[in-house]
What we know:
The protein is an all-alpha fold. The chain has helices at residues 11-22, 33-42, 48-57, 63-68, 71-78, 84-99, 105-109, 113-121, 128-137, 148-156, 165-174, 180-196, 214-224.
Amino acid sequence: MLGIKEENISIHKIYELLYEAYGPQNWWPADSVEEMMVGAVLVQNTAWTNVEKSLEALESFSPSYIRNVEHEELIRCIRTSGFYMQKARTLKNLMSWFQKYNDDILIARTKDERIIRSELLELKGIGYETADCMMVYALEKPYFIIDAYTRRIFERLNIPLHYNYLKAQAYIQDNLEVDVQIFNEFHALLVKHGKKHCMKKPRCISCPLGKYCYYYQSQEESIAFI
């Protein structure tokens, strides 16, 4: 019945419905940890299609290659990702940091998660979202990633997240089992849903969250009164 909304959906229910709709995503879309880390930097403020072109242009994702390649050559390879001068510096800083762990992700994973996250955040060009992508997909530590897709989807489900990244993250982690695999899969599912249905101009037909979506229901109500 129009005008009567379903009760608010739980965060775990969002995960269940998205998983049922899309299945496992097997994220991050990379063949190595090093490629994942490079991609996490390059995807800042751009579409993944632009990142793919940059990844194809790079000769190697090895930390030693990124550290030693001429700055101008690195810029040339990643130009399609935008902000290429800043991102080139960030990539070199990231791989210099990785050197302290002998370029070995298994060694890095043994470090206290709070310390290693702090180290990543100290690198110029790496903020919370990028650091947490690496924490989840490379270092296998449970930090829920807050991105634009997450904020938009939750807002339309009447679960507006705090503008402060850490407070938004804490809210979700307080209402969801803290598990790196769940955080891995949930983030990938939210991105999938954001690209398939919950864009800025959404495609609401067949949306697996439509029953709980305040935006969708408001559209139905507007049509009913025309």
